[in-house]
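A note from the maintainers: we've had questions about how concatenated examples are separated. There is no special marker in the raw files; a new sequence line simply starts the next protein. For clarity in this README we add a label.
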Amino acid sequence: FLTEQVEEEKNVQDVIDQIVRMEKDPAAMMQLDKELGTRPLPVPVQRAGA
């Protein structure tokens, strides 16, 4: 669980860094939105007893 959490936090920070770099470029922002929209959805975690 901890490894997954660290990985997700890095992914979010990477997206934030991209947004900060391109905040004055609407075309780049639209491209990022398009790219992020194609990412696969995370697989739901089965909890014990569920």
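[label: protein 2]
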Amino acid sequence: MKMKGLKLSIIALAGLIMAGCGGVEKMKELPEGFTLKVTPNPVEVHANKVKATFEGTIPPKYFNKKAIVEITPVVVYKGGELALPSKILQGEDAQANNQVINYEAGGTWKHDVEYDYKDEMFNCEIELRFVITYKDKQVPFDAPQKAGIGTMATYKLVDIDPKPVMLSDKFVRVTSEEKEAQINFVIQKADIRKSELTKDEIKMLNDFLLDAAQAKDKEIKELKISAYASPDGPEKLNDELSQDRGKNTDKYLADVFKKAKVQAEVTTAVEFTAEDWDGFQKAVQESDIEDKELILRVLSMYSDPVVREKEIKNLSKVYKVLAEKILPQLRRSKMIAKVDLVGYSDDTLRYMVENNTYDSLNVEEMLYAATLVNDVNKKIEVYMKAGEKFNCARGYNNVAYYHILNNNIAAAKAALEKIPTDQKIAAVTNNRGCVALL
């Protein structure tokens, strides 16, 4: 019996600890309006010292009144990291002597730091690590927040080998596109009217699906039907209606492929909602009908669908408007199609570059293709083409990168001069510094 009592005490204690921390767990999810920045970015070295200012904005109703937050800037570089002095903020009811952030109004904070520079910090990231203290319990953020990248240390390059910097592509091999269309039904009916199938949205969805099914570089990733019945009428009837509407819509889509003699390797997922109270509430909220607040109040007061329907029907004048404007749009089935566009494979891109057939590529494909070949001259050729065809600073910068590595300083300078000076790009500035030092 004593052992059982001990177990219960431990469980109760654990519950209290979890309850105590639960109030600040949501602070780990940064809301809209929460901003962070470091100035300058990249940070700069002067007399072997780096000075930086961190600033942040905290939106209203975020900072727990009893919480204390320690923000530690950390310089992360290859082979190590350097934790800088922390900034500590507190809620208005916290028992400490730090800058106070008001729960209702939010606030701003600023933190100046200075540290000694090491050559390893040339390529670095600066991140902010957050730890929340609440009722003597520490709750660290799941991941640090990135604040800055790199160090401007041009004067240091006099003593070390200048290191050019490349700019990366943003190539994505698979991109997704989604389209949807809706079929509306008559009250207590599940058959699809011909007039519904002539709507532009239906035609566009059909073309979208047929094109994807026949194209070699496309794949129908998902095809979903959500079928609904409006919340008026008997629940059993609405259940049958929603299922029949879903089945008929599924059959219609199958017929679209069949009539076009197109084989589509996709399984349609069909979902049914017998009484669409969520859709009803949303439609009422977005409408301009009178007494909509009264209707929404009824929905909030009663959760039983039968009682809800009865109480709304008792509002005879209101119910007539609902029957004309709201309920018809809920008798529907919604079709959602997701298609993946699959880009060129590495082998294809490599072949196109090696055989000079890459002119049709877009800028990201071209920049990525340049990384797939080993011949440096071919890389330079492709990057230059990207720069000239798309006025792409990344292309010109990467031309300069390889010329610097080959000690062809004149060619590197010529490539960098094609980039407008008002484009403030850290890698370009770095490479201009390399050219100036060589």
